[in-house]
Design goal:
The strands form five sheets. Strands 14-13-12-17-15-18-16 form a seven-stranded parallel β-sheet, sandwiched between helices. The chain is elongated. Helices cover 28% and strands 20% of the residues. The protein is built from ten helices and 18 strands.
């Protein structure tokens, strides 16, 4: 079948599709147009093996976003943000971040975070093209070229570049005077794996916001995002230059009770009361929380363990403690 026949068949099918859509739902929509929405083009995709196809299948054909761009050169400047990721991983000061793999990219596309572009291997195009907003460039590479761009043996076939969102605002979080809020505070979690697990666990258990200190790992790094499975993309984050002043504001202005997790000598967890507004502080595994941070807290809690056990991994301990405060039995005051 020639490309001209494919284009015409697509055009006719698209006209029918949008005519039926207008009849079923006459309300104005950015998807409606005279014949086709301005963000849709009826062009086939030509793969490196010479086969033609199109996305968003209707019958034998598919709609393709206009922003879909086939790239065949490794030197294309539009690939700069994805190039040699292991050596040039975007830092927290760049304003951007890279999401990699199916789950993380899907969660980025489903979040409120701005997506700058998406990079897909040809084999992933049919699956991801319908998920990419029409205004977001979708760069398509032959499968064999993607590992050469990113600089390592990358099998997942899909990456995306996002713009780092603004820090969470306490005023917005506590806008309702009677609102219940539970915060996770991580002043100095330096290991990307531990931070990723903490973000993933907090998001899964329903934490309302996460406060990070300047000594913590970059929450938007590829490794942290990968370990967190992208769940933290849906939780408000705040990266503080001065954790102490943030804690003071939370306690004095917003009525947040500060609770520190300690390995021993704290209130046994099952005896710890819940509060409408609280912040749970966890230190790193090597040194724990600094003494002055402990002194600022209203309470210290510990997970009772047999005397032979030294401590738990910080992500495991945090999961147990967060579950108690978020989903445990409400203890009488």
């Amino acid at each position: 079948m020639s490309l001209s026949v494919i284009r015409e068949a697509l055009r006719v099918r698209a006209m029918r599709f949008f005519a039926l859509r207008e009849a079923a739902d006459p309300r104005p929509s950015s998807l409606h147009g005279a014949f086709l929405p301005p963000s849709i083009t009826l062009q086939p995709v030509i793969y490196s093996n010479g086969k033609a196809s199109v996305k968003q299948r209707t019958g034998d054909f598919q709609f393709v976003p206009m922003a879909q761009i086939s790239i065949s050169s490794l030197d294309d400047p539009r690939l700069a943000v994805y190039r040699q990721l292991k050596r040039s991983n975007l830092t927290r000061w760049s304003g951007l971040f890279i999401a990699e793999g199916d789950k993380v990219v899907r969660r980025l596309l489903a979040s409120r975070i701005e997506v700058v572009s998406v990079l897909a291997a040809e084999r992933c195009l049919l699956e991801f093209a319908p998920l990419v907003p029409p205004h977001v460039p979708l760069y398509v590479l032959p499968d064999r070229l993607l590992p050469e761009v990113v600089g390592f043996n990358f099998h997942r076939g899909i990456l995306a570049c996002g713009r780092r969102p603004a820090d969470a605002c306490w005023q917005h979080l506590f806008a309702e005077a009677a609102s219940r809020r539970t915060l996770l505070v991580l002043p100095a979690i330096q290991g990307p794996e531990n931070l990723g697990l903490l973000l993933r666990t907090g998001a899964a258990l329903g934490i309302d916001a996460i406060l990070l200190g300047p000594q913590s790992a970059d929450p938007w790094s590829r490794r942290v995002l990968r370990v967190s499975m992208g769940l933290a993309l849906h939780v408000p984050l705040r990266q503080a230059r001065d954790v102490r002043s943030e804690l003071q504001e939370l306690a004095e202005r917003w009525g947040v009770r500060l609770i520190a997790a300690v390995p021993r000598a704290g209130t046994p967890l099952m005896q710890a009361r819940q509060y409408p507004r609280l912040a749970l502080l966890f230190g790193n595994e090597g040194e724990g929380l600094e003494p002055d941070l402990l002194a600022r807290c209203h309470e210290q809690v510990a997970i009772p363990m047999p005397s032979g056990a030294d401590s738990l991994n910080v992500a495991v301990a945090a999961g147990i403690i967060m579950h108690h405060y978020l989903h445990g039995p409400v203890l009488p005051g």
